[in-house]
Specification:
By secondary structure, the protein is an alpha/beta fold. The strands form four sheets. An eight-stranded parallel beta barrel has the order 13-14-15-19-20-21-23-24, surrounded by four helices. Strands 1, 2, 4, 5, 7, 10 and 12 form a seven-stranded antiparallel β-sheet that branches. Strands 3-6-11-8-9 form a five-stranded antiparallel β-sheet, with no helix packed on it. Helix 4 links the parallel strand 13 and strand 14. Helix 7 runs parallel beside helix 9. The radius of gyration is 24 Å and the shape is globular. The N terminus is likely disordered. The structure holds (3S,4R)-3-hydroxy-2-oxopiperidin-4-yl beta-D-xylopyranoside (XIL). The site of (3S,4R)-3-hydroxy-2-oxopiperidin-4-yl beta-D-xylopyranoside has 7 residues, from loops.
Length: 590
């Protein structure tokens, strides 16, 4: 378990030859709205909005112009290259197609826009099959105006990419690029950039607009809203505008590695050979966590059918580059398929305790067979403590594990894990431990009890999804110190720092002032981590993602509001937060 230490030897050739990432920038750019009065010429729309009068407001990034590949304003009363997403096979399965057609109901410019209506699924919307006009490895920008006039006060939309593969048996892959929130009656500008993947097994690539995915049982009017698209432009950008890592800055691992291991969550796309994100991971981090791909819903979506391919990509990259791995997660009440909790003979009934324990053991066995040799530390259970009570999360609070097995499920999961992963460190992982005293006390009592019962728990994992204004450094210090008295280690497992102060704000500018506040907080908190790292209490700090474009915070807790919680920006440039940790003298005004 020795830290990788210094900078890895580069094995990757050039970004030019092997660009294969899909990236999204601009979630925070696409916030420019105009009233839906119509008839504005496209040319009158600025490339980017000017800075506000507020001294502190950042100027919005001025977007460089690219070569226009496709441009649709629908004024020729044709839908052009746009088609409904509903396919013949969906229709055969009983799904009615949405309508995608030119309309005079409202227009951002000229006379027409594209109307998308009769939607019965969130995924229904206009799609554009990219073919001859785009080239693998090149970077493109889509600009569009989105609006609606009837229905809810506001709705969220996203643009996504769909890959289909030459081997028709491989399921299509979907990447949500950018989300925006649109208010009724206001045309809202949408900007997203992506690199066309050059995986040789791709057969086709579509980009499309939809509302965020929800299952049929949970739909409200915002999910199926009739919407309009206008002035859609697809531009090819100069290759130099592709995100590029800064080679000449210090490596995080060199600066922090003497205190604790430095980790990052990663996706299969981010580790693709030749990508800038892979280079960045190799430069700065020594341990990886699969952000989603080791979760039960990816690994075993159907009983007995295992899908290891996405996680294998990350594991393969880690072993090839000498990084270690953290496993996330063996048991969670979320991102676990419904079948796990259903009676094998009657899915309307819950599984019995025995069946559920058997499935847990089988699943853990499969993980041990596949990843046991690679993974150093495992989140055995994730988020088992209730925010409301500090006790175990109940069935009413979403835990079918608790409901079906009873309160001993946590102990049992750790015992199974010890048998199957005898050399790994076993982690109990949760959020808000640094900010809720009740929850931290609950964790303390739970782990104390587990230790007293001889349950093999080694580490308390603190997710550490914090805000840039709280909790206080004192509270953080006290909590970690208290956990240390239990004789367990502490690991920071999912560190990021939202720029919002509440879960209800809709949008926020990442101003110089906010950047500095965030940088200060990062510095102060990491100083506490270093303190405990020096004492051997904190062993690992993992950041929940590489850069702001690819952070879950963009869509959590508010879909589409955008955020900027990580150390690198949308172009992979080190932010003040990075410098505040690495060399505070480089941050003016800190
Ligand atoms: C998040 C992922 O980052 C998202 O992509 C996904 O949509 C939801 O889950 N606590 C956890 C992580 O333990 O697994 C969550 O990750 C973030 C909160």
């Amino acid at each position: 378990m020795s830290p990788k230490g210094s900078k890895m030897k580069k094995t990757i050739t050039s970004w030019w030859q092997a660009a294969a990432v899909v990236l999204a920038v601009g979630a925070l750019l696409g916030a420019c709205a105009t009233p839906a009065a119509g008839d504005k010429p496209v040319a009158s729309q600025p490339a980017a909005a000017a800075a506000t009068a507020d001294d502190e407001a950042e100027e919005e990034e001025v977007l460089e112009k690219g070569e226009i590949m496709v441009s649709s304003n629908f004024d020729d009363a044709s839908a052009g290259q746009w088609k409904p997403r509903t396919k013949e096979s969906d229709k055969a399965a009983g799904v009615d197609s949405e309508a995608v057609e030119p309309s005079k109901d409202m227009a951002h410019s000229g006379t027409h826009s594209l109307k998308i209506h009769n939607r019965t699924k969130t995924w229904q919307g206009p799609t554009h099959l990219l073919s001859g006009e785009v080239k693998p490895g090149d970077i493109y920008r889509v600009t569009a105006w989105l609006g609606f006039k009837d229905g809810p006060d506001a709705a969220t939309f996203n643009m996504s990419l769909e890959k289909s593969f030459k081997d028709a048996a491989t399921p299509h892959a979907y990447t949500n690029l950018t989300f925006i929130k649109v208010k009724k009656g206001e045309w809202t500008k949408f900007v997203s950039e992506f690199v066309v993947p050059n995986d040789s097994d791709i057969a086709a690539l579509d980009y499309y607009f939809e509302t965020p995915w929800k299952s049929s049982g949970e739909l409200d009017e915002a999910d199926l809203v009739t919407f309009y698209l206008d002035d859609v432009v697809l531009e090819k950008l100069d290759p130099s505008s592709r995100p590029h890592i800064e080679e000449d800055i210090p490596n995080l691992v060199d600066v922090l590695g003497k205190y604790f291991k430095v980790g990052c969550a990663a996706t299969p796309e981010q580790v693709m050979s030749g990508s800038q994100t892979a280079e960045l991971l190799m430069k700065h981090y020594q341990m990886l966590t699969c952000g989603n791909t080791m979760k039960w819903d990816t690994i075993q979506p159907i009983e007995g059918q295992f899908n290891f391919k996405p996680a294998d990509a990350v594991v393969g990259f880690a072993s090839k580059t000498g990084m270690s791995l953290h496993g996330h997660t063996l048991l969670w009440h979320q991102q676990t398929p419904a079948w796990v909790f259903q009676d094998p003979d009657d899915e309307t009934k819950p599984a019995s305790r025995e069946v559920l324990l058997g499935r847990l053991k089988d699943h853990m066995q499969a993980m041990a067979d596949q990843y046991g040799d690679f993974v150093e530390t495992w989140d055995v259970v994730n988020e088992v403590i209730s925010d409301a009570t500090g006790k175990l999360r109940t069935g009413a609070e979403g835990s079918k594990w608790f409901e079906i097995i009873g309160p001993d499920y946590v102990d049992i999961a750790f015992k199974y894990a010890k048998e199957l992963f005898p050399d790994a460190q076993l982690v109990i992982n949760d959020y808000n431990l640094e900010s809720s005293k009740q929850k931290a006390d609950g964790m303390y009592e739970l782990v104390k009890g587990m230790k007293a019962r001889g349950v093999p728990v080694d580490v308390i994992g603190m997710q550490f999804h914090v805000k840039h204004t709280y909790p206080s450094v004192e509270q953080i210090r006290e909590t970690i110190a208290k956990f240390a008295t239990l004789g367990v280690k502490v690991q920071i497992t999912e560190f990021d720092m939202s720029i919002y102060t509440s879960d209800t704000e809709d949008s926020k500018k990442f101003t110089k002032k906010v950047k500095l506040e965030q940088a200060r907080r990062y510095r102060d908190i990491v100083n506490v981590f270093k303190e405990f790292g020096s004492k051997g209490v904190i062993e690992r700090v993992t950041f929940w993602g590489i850069s702001d474009d690819a952070s879950w915070l963009n869509d959590f807790p508010v879909k589409g509001r955008g955020d900027a919680g990580l150390l690198f920006d949308r172009k992979l440039k080190a932010k003040p937060a990075f410098w505040a940790i690495v060399d505070p003298s480089k941050v003016e005004g800190l």
